[in-house]
Design a protein that fits this description.
This protein has 496 residues and is an alpha+beta fold. Helix content is 32%, strand content 31%. The longest helix has 20 residues, at 187-206. It starts with 22 loop residues before the first helix and ends with a helix. The structure holds ligand ISC. It catalyses: chorismate = isochorismate.
Length: 496
């Protein structure tokens, strides 16, 4: 594609063949392309238009994609998504054009079908730069269905084709709008809406009117006790391991924090970009006031140009001198190898040819260090979500044998896992995908924050060490989310 200017051209599903850079001509081209594409669509199809933006940070622009007052208006949509892999890909999305929500054993297959159907009707995979491709956003539940139905129950899967998608990688930034045509919505309206939004966001960026959300320490008024109930669950889990009933089980704990005020979820996420730079930060918000947030160090799978990568991550130590000891700890190496072997076996059973380095490396994520082995394979003809279905949950978050371990989780953990340790991510129109494991995460419900963390038990684990590991993980989460107990908050204010 040749261009007289270094600014990327606006593109639709098929970019117009001639294009100049002046503002008027750009809009005209957008409109021509919108009309052309609309003619090819079925009557009530979804039109997907995209434009390059001069710049902008998706994390800062997310609240401006669909201003909150509009989201709350009748017919408004409060869906919000953030995927912050900076310095890699960042995506902000708002509103739903198509969505799917279901539970049951076929959830991965049906989510794949939904994504393929939505995306194939929008665009040919070759069109536009990869960064700008339309994506279906996905959040799974840990279990295929919640135990108790109810308004806060997390279904087996939620999949969303968003109305607005803003994506950025390096210096390149694209804004996409997708809406159903018909019912009075015309291609011209869409082109105008996208054009105006792009100019509005650019003005916001240029006027420097975007501030990172202020992150002052948020005091914790109360935190729920967890140690005693976790101790007895771990004792029970270790008995199962010692008896040989389970080879591994990853038991989690949930801590509920009552905060001094209801923070904005982005205010909690912003510091994680600094503290957890090697992770992928995420937000999944279905309704105002409730949001899943986290910084995942663990990739269930990434598919990029037909190459698949999955991360085995298990074995934990605090950053510092102890960390190197992980490589020599038989218990941690065993705990880790079970994950590597299982992922490798699952991929091989699916007919792939997985490769892995012989020895794990150390991966530092904030104050925690883990044993890490990347596993890669060519994806072949497989669909990303069929492989995800086979991989989830790995023994890094459930246990072995998988089915028995999962049954024990339901009886030993006195809470619903919901999104904790489940896949979250996206799939795009070319079949690239990224699904992270939603650990190092929490759910914000107004002024209550529920944190969940777990640790793997294998033969050789001790109750005290597992309690310490989980306390460390919870403490790091609190610290990174800028939460402090009243006592800590008072002293940090005094220092300021
Ligand atoms: C299940 C969690 O971590 C997993 C990932 C890395 C290390 C782990 C461990 O050492 O137990 C866990 O397998 C969690 O943090 O909630």
């Amino acid at each position: 594609m040749s261009s007289s200017s270094s600014r990327p051209r606006p593109f639709l599903v098929q970019a117009p063949s001639s294009f100049t850079d002046s503002t008027g001509d750009s809009f005209t081209s957008l409109l021509v392309a919108a009309n052309e594409r609309a003619r090819q669509l079925e009557e009530e199809g979804v039109l997907s238009l995209a434009l390059p933006l001069a710049g902008g940070d998706p994390m800062l622009l997310l609240p401006h994609l669909e201003p909150e007052d509009e989201a709350l208006a009748p017919g408004g949509d409060s869906f919000r998504f953030l995927w912050d892999g900076a310095p890699g890909l960042c995506i902000a999305a708002a509103g739903r054009t198509n969505s799917l929500e279901l539970s049951g054993p076929r959830r991965f297959e049906l989510a794949q079908r939904f994504a393929s159907a939505c995306l194939s009707r929008l665009a040919t995979p070759e069109s536009g730069p990869p960064l700008a491709r339309p994506r279906v956003l996905l959040a799974f539940g840990f279990f295929e269905a919640p135990l108790q139905p109810g308004p806060t129950a997390i279904p087996g899967v939620q999949a969303v084709l968003p109305r607005w998608q803003l994506s950025r990688q390096g210096q390149h930034c694209w804004l996409r709008l997708q809406r159903s045509l018909g019912g009075g919505v015309t291609p011209r309206q869409l082109a105008e809406e996208l054009w105006e939004q792009a100019r509005r966001l650019e003005r916001l960026v240029q006027q420097d009117g975007l501030e990172p959300r202020v992150v002052s320490r948020i005091a914790i008024h109360r935190s729920s006790p967890w140690r005693e109930s976790y101790r007895s669950a771990v004792e029970r889990g270790l008995e199962l391991v010692e008896r040989g009933e389970l080879e591994k089980v990853v038991l989690a704990v949930r801590q509920e924090l009552q905060l001094e005020a209801a923070p904005h979820p982005l205010a909690l996420l912003a510091p994680l970009r600094r503290h957890q730079s090697g992770s992928c930060r995420f937000l999944w918000q279905q309704a105002r006031g409730t949001a899943l947030i986290g910084a995942s160090p663990e990739r269930l799978l990434t598919v990029h140009q037909g190459q698949l990568r999955s991360d085995a991550l298990a074995g934990t130590a605090p950053a510092g001198e102890q960390a190197a000891g992980l490589l020599h700890s038989c218990k941690d190496r065993h705990e880790h190898e079970l994950v590597v072997d299982t992922i490798t076996a699952v991929l091989a059973r699916a007919g792939l040819n997985p490769r892995r380095p012989r020895h794990p490396r150390l991966a530092r994520h904030g104050q925690l260090v883990h044993l890490h082995t990347p596993i890669t394979a060519a994806l072949g003809q497989h669909q990303p979500l069929s492989i995800a279905a086979a991989l989830h949950p790995t023994p890094a978050v459930a246990g072995l044998p998988r089915r028995e371990a999962m049954a024990w989780l339901r009886s030993l953990e006195p809470f619903e896992r919901g999104h904790y340790a489940a896949p979250i991510g996206w799939i795009d129109s070319a079949g690239d995908a990224d699904l992270r494991v939603a650990i190092r995460s929490g759910t914000l419900r107004g002024d209550r924050l529920e944190l969940t963390a777990g640790a793997g038990l294998v033969r050789g684990s001790t109750v005290e060490r597992e309690l310490q590991e989980v306390a460390l993980k919870l403490g790091v989460l609190q610290q990174q989310l800028s939460c402090a107990t009243d006592h800590q908050a008072a002293s940090s204010r005094a220092i300021v």
